[in-house]
Design a protein that fits this description.
With 442 residues, the chain is of the alpha/beta class. It has 13 helices and 16 strands. Strands 1, 2, 3, 4, 7 and 9 form a six-stranded mixed sheet that branches. Strands 12-11-10-15-16 form a five-stranded mixed sheet, sandwiched between helices.
């Protein structure tokens, strides 16, 4: 990836959203913050053209076979086939990145269910995945005539964890080593058969610990607010973002002067993945006649493969069905809403939402403004309980209005119909590239 030289003014900024479920990246031409134009936005096709996939979404997954390391959609497919033998892919990387003892979590060997060879630490596997992601970004840039050969600055988006900014150097080190590994593996990273174990181990060894590359960091919900503040038809003076992804639910806001309202920044460590686990438990409870561990494992494997589709159907239609061995199990939205853990999650989300909104409203009143706008982004943007929370929001002394999760320009034919359906998930990468430097850590 071409870097801006010392003192040079980069033409484009690329932001990487290293997501729990999917990774995304987008490029935005410098200057777009001052005069937004959709033509300055270039979502990057990091997901390739896998069947049934979206070219802008890359599955955040690594799978270690008996002989190779696989990434992305290939890793997910291989993990599904191997589930009967209790093998699984390494996913939800952010669970490790948010660990209280970050260094110890990464230094530990991956569990035997993930790496039965005991060849790789959890840090090694994250670095290998980031090498794949880095290579996918480089390929997408090279294939885009607007970006190929341009000078580019890079950023990544991070949840607003407590102490998150202090992790910037450590995460930059992961990206830096990943680029060194990617340079050694080259096009072999994209062999559908994966990287041979020995080649992966050797690339990690040869890469050593390179000098840190220059990366900026922007908090995820702040990035989404940065886009929403200037990228919609009627820019708001005070805007709050609700960002429910797979691993975290984040709240952030920008106010007068387009500066972050720090008191509005909140992160919950529960989100879509937790809802998936609740739905899995509810569906398993509806199958009490399983007699053997093998039968239970087979059902669990079947449910895991389709749980996100089950969740989407539940939120859209109010009910969903799963068929296993000729028998259909159904679940209704009311089953989810009656679940004790889900009700606790909703209470915590509402409390965080109200605390964040009150902070934004107080700032708006101080700035003599009469309206606060809210937008939902992330994979959970269209969940009914998120939309209801946004629509019914009220705050003292200000009007509260909502923005659509997807802007009109995302429907442009230039994106081949691929951007609008998943725009709330791309909003963080786009906003992270769009945000001015003052909202980012150097």
């Amino acid at each position: 990836m071409t870097q801006a030289g010392a003192g040079a003014q980069a033409q484009w900024i690329v932001c990487i959203d290293f997501g729990t479920a999917f990774s995304k990246a987008a490029a935005v031409r410098e200057g777009a913050w001052g005069a937004f134009d959709p033509r300055m936005v270039r979502p990057l096709t990091v997901g390739g053209v896998s069947p049934g996939g979206n070219p802008f979404l890359l599955e955040s997954a690594v799978f270690v076979t008996d002989t190779h390391v696989l990434f992305g959609s290939e890793a997910v497919r291989a993990a599904g086939v191997a589930a009967a033998s209790k093998r699984q892919a390494l996913r939800s990387f952010k669970t490790m990145l948010s660990a209280a003892d970050f260094d110890r979590a990464l230094a530990a060997f991956a569990p035997l269910s993930i790496d039965p060879h005991r060849m790789f630490s959890q840090r090694d596997l994250i670095v290998l995945y980031l090498a794949y992601l880095s290579g996918a970004i480089a390929r997408a840039i090279a294939a885009d005539p607007e970006l190929a050969g341009a000078e580019i600055r890079r950023r990544y988006a991070l949840p607003a964890w407590k102490g998150g900014q202090s992790m910037h150097g450590r995460i930059t080190a992961l990206f830096s080593k990943a680029e060194a590994v990617a340079a050694r593996l080259g096009d072999a990273l994209f062999d559908p058969a994966g990287i041979p174990l020995a080649a992966a181990a050797e690339a990690l060894k040869q890469a050593g610990e390179p000098a840190p590359l220059e990366f900026g960091m922007v908090f995820e919900a702040t990035a989404a607010a940065a886009y929403s503040l200037v990228g919609l038809k009627a820019p708001a003076s005070h805007l709050m973002v609700v960002d429910m992804g797979a691993g975290t639910t984040d709240f952030a806001a920008l106010g007068e002067g387009r500066d972050e309202i720090v008191d509005a920044r909140v992160t919950l460590m529960q989100a879509g993945d937790m809802i998936d686990r609740i739905l899995l438990d509810l569906l398993l409870q509806k199958a009490p006649n399983l007699k053997t561990q093998a039968e239970q494992l087979a059902l669990w494997r079947s449910l895991m493969a389709s749980i996100r589709e089950v969740k989407e159907s539940l939120f859209i239609d109010g009910r969903a069905a799963v068929t296993h061995q000729g028998k259909t199990k159904t679940i209704a939205a009311r089953d989810l809403y009656k679940d004790r853990d889900f009700k606790a999650f909703l209470r915590e989300m509402k409390r965080a939402f109200e605390n964040s909104l009150n902070a934004v409203a107080a700032r708006a009143v101080k700035d003599k403004r009469k309206e606060v706008c809210i937008v939902a982004v992330g994979g959970g943007a269209y969940a009914p309980f998120v939309q209801e929370m946004v629509r019914s929001a009220k705050a003292p002394k200000v009007r509260v209005a909502s923005y659509p999760a997807t802007p009109d320009w995302a429907h442009s034919a230039a994106f081949g119909g691929n951007l609008a359906p998943i725009f709330p998930q791309l909003a963080i990468a786009i906003g992270g590239a769009l945000a001015p430097d003052r909202l980012c850590a150097a």
